[in-house]
Specification:
The protein has about 325 residues and is α/β, with parallel strands linked by helices. The protein contains 14 helices and 8 strands. Strand 1 (about 5-10), helix 1 and strand 2 (about 30-35) form a beta-alpha-beta unit.
């Protein structure tokens, strides 16, 4: 599977430079920043402009923006272009209430004319290639048009006509959020539509090398975007590509330690803040899945507030459970 493209999905509070660089090291072909709020960027809010920080070592990298007004999105795209990303991605897929509920992200699936207006405005505002990420539709009742055409096939064509260079599709509706199984059949229909000329990226529930291989072979997508399965597992890309990856618990815990250190540095050398920022990776990491009598140790790991505590607990885990997982 070495020649297949694997991308790290954009995720709020996850895909900061510290995590992106680790994923890049282990084979991610492209990485995406966290979501960048167009209105906040135009207002020059420091916490938002900080998200434009990218490094040459992580290229190709895309900066993703979201918003609900064409003019603000175009202005934000011009600001983003000054950071020199390889792509500017438009978020038409975020389902959370604070985004979609305000008419941005997946909320625009209910207002396709405005979605297209935003897309044209962004494409016309910059010279950098513009891409987009969306979902299959708003809910199960909007998956097909009255003539039987899949909504997402029609939308993909219209976005293509607006000038985007690629389209990533999460195989769920907005109403599903992250529940249920991703529907790759509709992603495949977009890819196999003879009128679609741009690359199609599939996203949703790809968690193993076997599933990645199946999705490439069955649906013919140009790339796969991987999100939550990377939590605490940046080496997943290497496993999917058959590249060298950490094998033992000792090796994997060493990578998690490295990530904590990088997170602390990203958080301005604030030790506690960097550790809190890393907790979702501890909680979700497959390294700690299925360990017998692990509950109390897991609670201690998620409550630790100093680097010394975190590392001591990790060393204890390796000493106690590592022998059975080497």
């Amino acid at each position: 599977m070495t020649n297949h493209q694997l991308y790290l999905a954009p995720m709020e509070d996850v895909t900061d430079p510290a995590f992106r660089m680790l994923c890049k090291r282990y084979g991610a072909d492209r990485v995406y920043t966290e979501f960048v709020n167009a209105d906040a960027l135009v207002r020059d809010i420091a916490s938002t402009t900080r998200k434009l920080t990218i490094h040459d070592e992580e290229r190709p990298v895309a900066i993703q923006i979201y918003g609900r007004e064409p003019e603000a999105m175009a202005d934000a795209a011009r600001i983003v272009e000054q950071a020199h990303p390889d792509f500017i991605d438009i978020n038409f897929g975020c389902p959370v209430k604070k985004v979609a509920g305000k008419g941005a992200g997946a909320g625009l699936l209910k207002d396709v004319p405005k979605m297209l207006e935003i897309t044209r405005a962004v494409v016309n505002a910059v010279h950098t290639p513009v891409t987009a990420k969306t979902r299959l539709g708003w809910d199960e009742n909007s998956l097909y048009l009255p003539d039987g055409t899949p909504f997402i096939v029609d939308l993909a064509e219209r976005l293509q006509d607006c000038g985007i260079q690629e389209l990533a599709i999460h195989g769920r509706t907005r109403s599903q959020m992250y529940r249920g199984e991703a529907d790759w059949t509709l992603i495949g229909e977009v890819k196999n539509c003879p009128r679609i000329r741009i690359p199609i990226i599939g996203n949703g529930d790809v968690t193993t090398p076997e599933r990645a291989k199946e999705c490439f072979e069955r649906y013919g997508v140009d790339a796969i975007m991987i999100g939550r399965a990377t939590f605490g597992c940046p080496w997943l890309f290497a496993e999917m590509k058959g590249l060298p990856a950490p094998q033992t618990m000792t090796e994997k815990v060493a990578v998690l330690k490295e990530h904590v250190l990088a997170a602390i540095e990203w958080c301005g050398s604030d030790e506690r803040k960097g550790i809190v920022h890393s907790r979702r990776h501890f909680a979700a990491s497959p390294v700690f899945k299925g360990l017998a009598d692990f509950k109390q140790t897991r609670i201690a790991l998620l409550r630790a507030e100093t680097l010394a505590e975190v590392f001591a607990i990790m060393d204890e885990i390796v000493a106690k459970w590592g022998a059975n997982n080497e």
